[in-house]
Write a structure and sequence with these properties.
Beta-carbonic Anhydrase, Chain A, five-stranded mixed beta sheet, three-stranded antiparallel beta sheet, about 45% helix, about 20% strand, binds zinc ion, Carbonic anhydrase
Length: about 240
């Protein structure tokens, strides 16, 4: 994108993408325009390296999304709460997925006592509380492992908030809503299930332990995951 401004490039890239998708499947956009019925609510970090639909190999219409700095789930945050309520009560998603990730700048900032400035220190307060609650464990780790661990502990804390959410609790009881905590390794592109929340399965879940294939049915394609000798394999149908 040498001489071109990145915004100009992005817009022309959109034109090319829309043309390609429409050519591939003329019904794709007209169908999308009729409405949405995603089965997954994804709560993740705003980090540019964690675009949920892309890393899940899914399509527009498949994932309802809330992302913020360091994927903090706070019970008093009306933004997060509105996204949860709309997707769980009205869209009736089947899975709520909270995703932390490696190399998270927000998590790293919470490990330090250096002020980031502005509203960011306030925003990261819950993460600092997590850090303080696990100070001993974190201190025993090397820098890289500590960065991963604080992000994992942040997911655990967020899952507790999700499981205490009344809307989520009702949907679990009434229709078996599943809540998952997962971790995205930016260095490998792989998501692993942390087996939190309502339990097992879920995104890694996608690949079940007994080697059977699980299927995630998207609106526009079907992804089949198989648990092979070197992990899950994905095939679009
Ligand atoms: Zn992050």
């Amino acid at each position: 994108m040498a001489a071109e401004d990145v915004f100009t490039y992005a817009l022309s890239s959109n034109q090319a993408w829309a043309g390609y998708k429409g050519h591939q499947n003329p019904d794709f956009f007209p169908k999308l325009a009729l409405g949405q019925s995603p089965e997954i609510l994804w709560i993740g970090c705003s980090d540019s390296r964690c675009p949920e639909t892309t890393i899940l190999g899914l399509q527009p219409g498949d994932v309802f999304v809330h992302r913020n700095v360091a994927n903090v789930v706070s019970p008093t945050d009306i933004n997060t709460s509105a996204v949860i309520e709309y997707s769980v009560v009205h869209l009736k998603v089947k899975h709520v997925v909270l995703c932390g990730h490696s190399s998270c700048g927000g998590a790293a900032a919470a490990l330090s006592d250096v002020r980031v400035g502005g509203v960011l220190d306030t925003w990261l307060t819950p993460l600092k509380a997590v850090r303080n609650a696990h100070a001993e464990e974190l201190a025993a780790l090397g820098d890289k492992a500590r960065g991963v661990r604080i992000a994992e502990l942040n997911v655990e804390a967020g899952i507790q908030v999700l499981m205490a959410n009344a809307v989520v609790q009702d949907a679990i009881a009434e229709r078996g809503l599943q809540v998952h905590g997962v971790f995205f390794d930016i260095g490998t592109g792989r998501i692993r299930d942390m087996n939190l929340g309502t339990g097992k399965g879920g995104v890694k879940g996608a690949a079940s332990a007994n080697g059977d294939a699980d299927v995630v049915r998207g609106k526009h394609a079907m992804l089949v995951f198989r648990n092979g000798s070197d992990g899950a394999a994905m095939q679009a149908r």
